[in-house]
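Attaching the record inline, Q. Sequence:
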Amino acid sequence: MDLNEIVVFAKVVETRSFTAAAQQLGLPKSTVSRKVAQLEERLGVRLLQRTTRKLSLTEIGQAYFERCQRIVSDIMLAEQMVTDMQTTPRGLLKVTAPVDLGAFVLGGMIARFLVEYPDIHVEMYMTDRVVDLVDEGVDLGIRFGPLAESSLIARKLTPVGMWMCASPEYLAKRGTPEHPDDLDEHDIVSFAPIPRLGTWILHGPDGAVIELTPSAVMVSNNLMAIRDAVRAGAGVTLIPEFVRSDGQDGMVPILRDWAPAPAELYAVYPSTRNLSPKLRAFVEFVVDWMSPPPWRREAGVAGIAAAAPG
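Structure, as predicted:
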């Protein structure tokens, strides 16, 4: 089947003229005549009655045209859809991000994005597994660095620091540590999304570095569980700065002069070639949203990552 024959035939019928059809299609009149003749030969029927003064459809030609007209219309609509999707941000956008970052930060960001781009629908897949964006058909991933070498494009978003925190009730009972060495006398609640993060490498004043592997009374890879335990007075923890720790959320910061080096947050996606409008819009929105990130825009929350030692 040659769809070009069908398109040419439908245009000839619509215009009732080989000449007019050729002009609208941008083809020589001889090509238009040949395409219609090839279609009739392939089908083994006459579709058009031709005279020097008139062009009309046969009975079979009329029935065939009615079906072809719908097909041609669908093709034109499909091509228009492709054009629109390449010029207007729309369609389904698949995004992946770490579970805790999604829970604490990205929900609000996505809500604002959807207000600005109502023709885009977002499918957010939260996992701490490194998703293969190409194999799994995901448009963009938000990840903590450093990133492994790959063919992915990476846009740096923001550094993310860490707070050392405890509840006011715990500190009133056990005292407030003044130096990392004092942590030996305290209960530790360890947020360890991967085992190596059970070690705390703290950068302090004048370039001092202390490495601790605290004996924890509780270890979890779930940040909400850690936060709730610390709020309830379970002990001292080290958690990402996007969990507020200004005293208003049941936790207060301690040892402000000591913190790990911030981790970098990136938006990663497969390629910049023929980047779809929906993905381009999302990348630019995320970059803008994270400059500065929302947890530093909130009143009363200092930007620990920007000021963190080391």
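The longest strand covers residues 153-160. Residues 77 and 83 are 10 Å apart (CA to CA).

More tomorrow.
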